[in-house]
Amino acid sequence: MAVAARFVPVARRLAAPRPQIWRAGMRRTFATRGPLMIKKYTEDHEWIEMDEGDKIGTIGITQYASKALGDVVYVELPEVGMEVNKGDTIGAVESVKSASDIMSPVSGKITEANDVLGDKPGTINKGPEAEGWFAKIEVSDKGELEGLMSKDEYDAFEKD
Amino acid sequence: MLVGALSLASRCHTSHVDHRRVLAYASQSLALRGHGHSVQCAGSFNGRWRRQSRRLSTSSAIDTNNALPRIKEFTTQHPVSIFRSLSNDPYHNLAIENYLLKNSEPNSRILFTYTNRPCVVFGRNQNPWLECNIAKVQEGLAWCTPDWAGDTTIKEVNTTFEENGLVALDLVRRRSGGGTVIHDVGNLNFSFIVPNDKDFTRNKHAWLVVSVLRDYQQHREKKHGSAKVLFDKVRVNERHDIVMTRRSIDGDVEDTQEYKASGSAFKLTRGRALHHGTLLHSSPNVGQTKEGDARASTFSTLLSSPARPFLQAKGVTSVRSPVHNLFRVSKPEGRWKLASDLEIALGSTFGTMYNDHNAPCIVIGDKDCHREVNTEIHEDVQEMMTDEWRFCQTPSFEYASTHSDGNIKLQFDVKHGIIQSAILHAADRTSAANTGFAALEGKKLHEVQSWKGFIPETFEADSAQIRAHLASVFPKIHPANTNGKLAPTSIIEEKSAAERAPGGIAIKRRSGEGNEEVEERGENVIIQR
Fold first, then answer.
1. Pfam families from the entry (chain B) (predicted)?
2. Does A99 contact B at CB distance below 8 Å?
């Protein structure tokens, strides 16, 4: 019981979409998130967030991209174990007659795909930066993260 | 004169056979013999179109030979450009389109137009077994020619890909999303390749096409009379389709129904957006004359799959819409002229939209897809013609059916085109029957040539019936056409024809392997899941 009580809220916190305030204007990282949880963005509207061990990154499409694409009706997920280079196509989504490629923000090896999207593609629209994540990747060169945009930079880019 | 840029471009390729095929008809009626296919554009339109002619001529110094191989450089120099394919090969045109999307300068804007030979083109994430009647598609399209009775030229149009009165139909998976569409000589394909920036919307270029249609409507009425225009209003609907209302002719009852004149499909990748559509201007296969004309139903039959009741599929299913021709043509060469007029008008309006009145127009074709000329395009063509692409790229689906009053149940999953967990369940028979069916596991569905070995003979009469059912749902697949010809008759030995008949569905089947000849009539042949 005690264990469950301690873990459930954590899991919920991780799975739930971040509160609106984060997107609305909060620029600084909260201490609770820790400085190691790096989240970066690409010009193709993908995000990657590193886990606490700083080895595995979770990839997804941004809130902005999800809105621009419209209702996602089909998701093509990557094969686990696939070795990819930065910029390679790792999957695709279809929405409103549009087939859109999803590119990997970094080089590495795919360790997991979000199978929920296979059965419920609409999950991407519900929480593109939360439960609608796309795949996980073992990052081979952390230096590549440096070249990506921060939240601030992405917000400015997206408004352009 | 317009002849400038276009004929310069055309000179690079005029020796190629498909150009002659396409243009033979146009040149008969137009006055520019000897100038290759630049003929199509000259004298076709007055006023604004003449201005476009002048604009195009100023760009005649372009090295059109190298526009495609050096597309990045070319589109950097010419941020707005127009490409026009004279190939009627759907694989070639789609590969050229994809090449333009992937290799052009990221901020450039391109209009690409082409007309395919008859083919069925389905979306990136669609299931061909579900979207069309594959057996009928492979049989070919019965070319209807009553309009042209007495006109011999139409025969020439078809000799290159006609056999026994049937025109071959390619079955093609494209790279963009959306649903299934049938192409023929009466469809003009337009394709806009632009940056996927804030300016881009899914409707933007559809409205461009609509504005061209509205202008051309007035022009054609003035020049050829109102009978040559079949639409009244035209607009872009919520699905980004171009829809029209019919014009009432000779006191006809007013028809408020909207008909689809063009769909829209998109491919978004690496900051680029491709929007293409198939503009139905004057198809001889779409009913445009009398009520009850066989043509009206041809397309709809091709897109009605016998597999539909038995498949549960992921991916994208098409939305069926009634279609209608925009214009009436009285002669085949009139159709080429019409398509050419529309291409010029699109080019002109496209140039205006992006403030480049000197946008060069480059004429390309089959030659640009040769291995020696452009390896990338060539390889893309080869890939799109593989069954791996056409069939194995189908999103996962499940097949299930019941037979013999529910006593026999069949089911399997298909993932990446490969059959998984095939189960045959026979209620009152031995379970050993399942073994034969389970042998399907690991096989590629499109490669199953015959169902004979997989359904045990112990079901007696039911065995033949189940095999007939499976062969109608998953017919033998012919390889992709290389030349728009029907597969040799030896391959089509096992023709299937499911025809609507009074009292139910009739299936006639003659198998090349055994001596079985099954003819069933009645609803029991196709059993609902």
1. LplA-B_cat (PF21948)
2. yes
